[in-house]
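hey so i finally got around to running the thing on that chain from the lab meeting. sorry it took forever, my laptop kept dying and i had to restart like 3 times. anyway pasting the input first so we r on the same page abt which one it is
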Amino acid sequence: MTMIPVDFATSELNDLTGHSGCLVVFADAEPDGDARRVDQSCQGAIARAMASEAWGDVKPGEALELAFPSGLGAEMLLLVRLPRDAAGDLARKAGARIARSLGSQGAVIAARSVAHLPQLVEGLALRAYRWTLNTSEKKPLGAVTVAVTDPEAACAECADSLIRAEAVHFTRDLVNEPANILTTSEFAARIDAMRDLGLEVEILEESDLQALGMLALLAVGQGSESPSKVAVMRWAGAEGAPLALIGKGVVFDTGGISIKPAAGMEEMVGDMGGAGVVSGTMRALAARKAKAHVVGIVGLVENMPDGRAQRPGDVVTSMKGDTIEVINTDAEGRLVLADIMWYAQTRFEPTAMIDLATLTGAMLIALGHDKAGVFSNDDALCNDLLAACASEDEGAWRMPLAPSYDALIKTRVADMKNTGGRAAGAITAAQFLQRFVKPGVAWAHIDIAGVSQPVGETEMSPKGPSGWGVRALDRLVRDRFEA
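ok and heres what got predicted. didnt touch it at all, straight out
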C-alpha cells in the first residue's frame, strides 16, 4: 500500500508556474485569485479557456485540461470548476477529478480559495490509488503539494481525511491480494501488525475455536490446507459496552463440494471483502484515536473441495447450539458469521452489532453495483447507518426482514438449513443470521456483494475493489458512538 505523499505549503507564484507536473487552479463563473495570477503568466490561456464553449460544458466538480500551457513549466494545467459555495461532497468529487489527471510528476494544487479542503484532499487521496504490487508497472504517482495560506492549520484539518483514505487503501489492498498470498495466516498477520497503531489484537486458532464450539465456522474451512482463524481487534477509546463490527473473511471461495462454475471463479479472491472493511475501519479508528469503544471480529477461512470438506446434507452445530443442515456448501459465509456473531455477543455484550459480507449473488441481482443491501432489527441503528452511508456517498438501501421468510429455511433434520434456494436469497440469508442475534441487541447486516468490487471504476476509486464501507462506518462511529 502506497499513499501518494500530500504536503501543505505556502507556495509562491514561481512555485506554481515552475512546477513541471500538473498545476491545478479553480474557477466557476470567474477564476479565483490564484487562477488569475497564473493566467498572467500563461498569457491569458485561462481566460481564453473560460470563454470557450468547452468550459460551458464543464459541470461543477469536473475540469478542463490544458496541455503544456505557454509560459508555465507544467505539462498540464487543470482548470477545475468549483463554486465558492460548493458543498463538501462536490469538493470531494473535485479532488477525485484531480487525481485522475495525476502522473509521475505529481501536482501543485492552488487551493487557497477552497472552502472544504478536507473533502477535496480526501477525494484526491481516495482516487489516487494504484495496485501494482504483483505487476511489472512500478511507476508511482508523484507527490502532491497543496498551496494554502496556513499550511500547519491545513495539515491538521486534513489529517483525518488522509487517515480514512489510507484505511480505505488498506482494505482495497486486502481485497486485491491473490489467495495464494493472502492466506488465512497472512491475513491474520496483517491484522496483528496493527498493534503498532494501538489496537488490541487477539488471534484465535483452530484449537481455540474448537473449544469455543465454533463448529459451523470450522466446517467451512475443514477442506483447506489453510487453518481457520478468528481475529479479534479492540479499540477501547471510551468506556461502556462496545459497538461490534463483524466481517466475513473467506480468503477464497470455490463453493466447496457445491463447486462454482470455473468462469469468473478468480473473483472469489475478494470473498473476504467484509473482513477487509472491518479491518480497515478498525485501522482508521485507531489511527485517529476515536473516542469510542469498538470491537472488530473477523472469521478467516478458505472454502475448498477436499476429501475432508463438508458435504451437502451434513449437519453442523453452531456455537449457539443450533443445528444447521448444509444444503449447499457454497452458502458458507453465513456459517462463519453465525459463530463469530454469537461469540461477539457472548464475550463483549455489545450495545450494537453490524456484520458485513459479500454474502449473496441475489444481492447483486437486486441492487446491482450501486448500493449495498441493509437489513436490520432496529430502526434507529438502521437510520443512522443509512445516513452515514449517504453522507459519504456510499450507496445503501434497506431491505425487508419478515417471519414469513423463515419457512424457506425450515428443514426436518435440523433447526434450520443454510439456504432457502433462489427465491429471496439475500433475505433468507439475513433471516438465517438474525437467528444468531440475542434479544435486545440492535443489529444490522450489510450485504456488500455488489459494491465491494464494481465492474468498472467509480468516482472515488479506479477499477477494482472500492473499499466501500470504511468511510461510512467511521462516520457512523463519529455520529453515534463517539463519547
